[in-house]
Records
---
Amino acid sequence: MKKDISLSDLISESNIVHDYDPNAMSVEKAKTWIANFLKPSDQQEIIHIKDALHRIVAESIKASINVPNHDNSAMDGYAININILNGDGPFSLKVTGKLLAGNQLEGNANEAVRIMTGASIPFGLNAVIPQEHVELNEGVITFKIKPHINQNIRRLGEDIKSGQVVFQSGRKIEPCDLGLLASLGIDSIKVYRKIKVAFFSTGDEIVSLGNPLSAGQVFDSNRYSLIGLLKRLDVEAIDLGVIPDNKKVIEDTLKKASDMADVVITTGGVSVGEADYMKEILKKIGEILFWKISMKPGRPLAYGKIGHCHYFGLPGNPVSTMVTFYQFVREAILTLSGQTPIPKTPLIRAQLLSPIKKVPGRTEFQRGIYEQGHEGTFKVSPHKDQGSGILRSMSEANCFIVLHEDTANLEKDMWVDIQLFDSLF
Ligand code: AMP
Ligand code: MG
């Protein structure tokens, strides 16, 4: 586990400092910087598996039984002992008993036993013939081909062996995992506590829903995009509303937020305008790194610490807020939540349906609309409205077209990387 380290300690480490240029930080470098300060929460709780979907396992989990815990039939049919079959088929055997799943055998197991899926294989029998493969006549079955040993038998422990580690610490619980835990008789597990994320919007012009909109004002959309983004990450979200561009009020709200959360996110106020106070306030109450990331949209980005709390200052333009959240905050929250390894967002190759103008030297996350052609290849059109204030095009798009730093203009039919919105959680 990493030790606590202050921003100033890190900046003064010579191996990093020669790379540190806040005026032209690449996306990857900024991510690496932030990652230096992140360590998973060490607080854990025990919860019922019914509540464990998408929670992060905090200890390795071992099976204490075999699944299945008995050899059983994979088919409705007849259990037989292949060792008593002599010569070439057809073979005939007398049905001497019947066995339903969960029941004890009625009759003897010396020849053939009528058996249902899931019923235990009687001692001495070693194959099951599906009922479709036999002819039944007056209590005698006839079949042509000798089965292999253990055919249509699910063996004890073939799913999970007793003593096997089924989940390592750091595993994110998916629906099938809940079933798997239940198959082992495990009803409660130890997970990491949910990460608490407090957030607020800043700006004198920003109006909360439910209030009238005067000239020059805009409704607060960022907070609602964030509510959605945070829901997908399954954190405990703490909504602190809209805060005016007032240093004292912002400072008080930041302090309050950092007292109750692991992460504080603000939107707006990180540019170089006259009412952009976040940098100054963070310097006073915590530590801050402030970057002009070489990316579009979303150039200004702040990361800092207020005590133990991580701070992300995202740009206020609604699309920039979302892009910087997806590219920086998402991964940071996953790391803090204890998940290991952090799943890499897949980049998929897609063919451009129209050209793109691009200057090398920065990473662009253009909004795109992809479709998968019937021959299987992905095709993508850049949305025509790429302004960082145009949230509608984010809503109409279904992926980012990721144009890497050294990429220049692209022609129709050239190949690009896309990141599906659906894969970003
Ligand atoms: P700022 O980053 O504060 O300079 O804001 C950049 C642009 O984003 C301005 O046009 C703001 O009005 C707009 N903006 C900032 N915060 C929000 C918000 N919460 N909802 C909608 N638009 C916003
Ligand atoms: Mg502002």
---
Amino acid sequence: MTYETETRSIFVTGLKNAHAMENQALSIMKPQLSRIENYPEVAAKLDQHIRETEGQITRIDGLLADLNEDSSSLKDMALSFTGAMAAMGHTMAGDEILKNSFANFAFENFEIAAYKSLLTIAELGGFANATSALKANLEEEKAMAKWLDENLRSVTMKFASLKEAGETAKI
Ligand code: MG
Ligand code: FE
């Protein structure tokens, strides 16, 4: 007989939400990567973080398996937060690279908050064996958020320079 505590239930739900969040991250980043032409540094970073994100999903799968929770059947419902961003219609605008930069920065900070919260729940529930995986995911989100923060100026300047040169049709 399994002893179900409320904290365990909160933790499992949080991990499943994180699983959905990471799949949403992939669905946000992959279309951007396929469209970028003029910003190779952004493309390289997105490519790197897509691969990191796939590793994050594997870590979450492992945590759910440790809790005897099957992640293979997760529906991964879209988060309303990202649904709103997707509706912004970035692909039709000449300044897609800027709007995507804002959205990516917002999403990474959403992820940072999610992992900080999950680490707190893990602490409360005594799930010490989950800490290293959650911290690994958190550190990757922090690094991505930092990169986006530090590169917003150069991306903006390049956008302005390309616009001046009449390259606005390409992102
Ligand atoms: Mg992530
Ligand atoms: Fe991320």
